[in-house]
Hints:
Layout: E1 7-15, H1 22-30, E2 39-46, H2 52-62, E3 66-71, H3 76-86, E4 89-94, E5 100-101, H4 105-116, E6 122-124, E7 127-131, E8 134-137, E9 151-154, E10 168-171, H5 189-201, E11 203-206, E12 212-215, H6 221-224, H7 228-231, H8 234-250, H9 255-270, H10 283-295, H11 300-305, H12 311-321, E13 325-330, E14 333-338, E15 341-346, E16 348-359, E17 362-370, E18 380-386, E19 391-395, E20 398-399, E21 415-422, E22 427-435, E23 438-446, E24 453-454, E25 461-462, E26 472-478, E27 482-487, E28 504-505
Parallel strand pairs: 1-2, 1-4, 2-3, 6-11, 7-12, 16-23
Antiparallel strand pairs: 4-10, 5-12, 6-10, 7-8, 9-11, 13-14, 14-15, 16-17, 17-21, 18-19, 18-22, 20-21, 22-23, 22-27, 23-28, 24-25, 25-26, 26-27
Helix pairs in contact: 5-8, 8-10
Amino acid sequence: MEKNIEYNVxxxxxxxxxxxxxERTLESIIAQQTRGLTYEVLLINDGSTDTSGExxxxxxxxxxxxxxxxxxxxxVSHARNKGLEIAQGEYILFLDADDLLLPQTIYHAxxxxxxxxxxxxxxxxxxxTKEGNDIKPHxxxxxxxxxxxxxxxxxxxxPFLNQCTMNVVIKNLDDAxxxxxxxxxxxxxxxxxxxxxxxxxxxxxxxxxxxxVYDIGHESTVDKFKxxxxxxxxxxxxxxxxINNALKHYGSVPAYVQxxxxxxxxxxxxxxxxxxxxxxxxxxxxxxxxxxxxxxxIEVHMILEQPLMDYYHKIYFIQTFKQQIIHxxxxxxxxxxxxxxxxxxxxxxxxxxxKIKKIGEExxxxxxxxxxxxxxxxxxxxxxxxxxxxxxxxVWLRETPASYYKSHLQVSSFLGFDFTLDLRQExxxxxxxxxxxxxxxTVPYFEEDIIxxxxxxxxxxxxxxxxxxxxxxxxxxxxxxxxxxxxxxxMSLPTNRSCTRKKGRGTF
Length: 508
């Protein structure tokens, strides 16, 4: 059926119990400077039980281009779909009843869309988050800054755009081509809809002006359906729908869709709401089988290239969901592979120091060895040696809580150490890490509570005087695959030359 176009843009607002925010939202539309562009506002009341309906009616009576539609409560996707059915704008903009549009958003979005309407069916514009009076740009805005900001982005060239939120304008397609929201999903329906729109032409336009302000200062649907207990298998349905739609359009799963899945997995993993640990067997095993099948469509290099995902988490996902990882020792170092794809080359390890403390006449060093895939190595050892004392010791290593790196799950194997050195003798000690029989270069890293006084005239680190009689302590990374700890006799220090060693790497 041919569309009846009366406006430049239709603004669809699903409304459900939003009387605390709705007027503010509508006023942000009225304040738009559209410069002759026309718009209609479709207020879809989804069975509200507060005064939202009265507010909708009031605005529809006051403004000829505001329309009030009431339906029984069916959910946000039903409400948006109702708006899609009756929209009379050439373009369609979505706005939730508790969010805002920044000034001139409509004008810039539509004028930019006009430039690229033959090449895309969807345009994105900047997203902001609002908490109280604090409004900040969303980190994903930077995804669109790689090509002179406003413009047309091909998803083959820019696969990491991850346009999963509703800061979009779409083309009002003919009925035969129109895409609707999946009403069976209570979560991720936005991302699925956007991805389907992107896949129709493989491009997405971006307008760098204006903005969608997403109010996070109160509970939203995203919060309500974040917990695995509440969403059931909706997350897997979302992934499977993405994959099936991609296969329908392309015959394969393009990088853009793979990245969209990884983006969703990443933020849920960081917030510990990915895995349904509440499920008993066989339910949990069935869930894991389905997500493994999802990862069958995700290439290893896409995991490694995914932005905003921590490197150790990337390795964890490869280990957990992809082919078994193997390692090879060769002239390049210790190299790791998933199937035939190279994923990491180990060339150095980081020695992290959690604590350096005097105990009697000894100095205690506590920390761990940090490097990817140590659990895949055959043998890992920490050796202390001193030529002056003819001393050699292999330090016992153990698993540490640090293996739960930026996560509630163990994502790696960071092996902890705890050793002491005698302060009564002058000597130099080498700290070496040996993996599969080969010594690797070490880089020291200090946690925040490692406090030093620093001798300004040298590269020596000197522990604070109240701890013990001042002795010179050297700790540095060496090119010959070791860290050196040197203990020397008493020395004088310049006065008022103290500082706190900040968290980070260092050569002293």
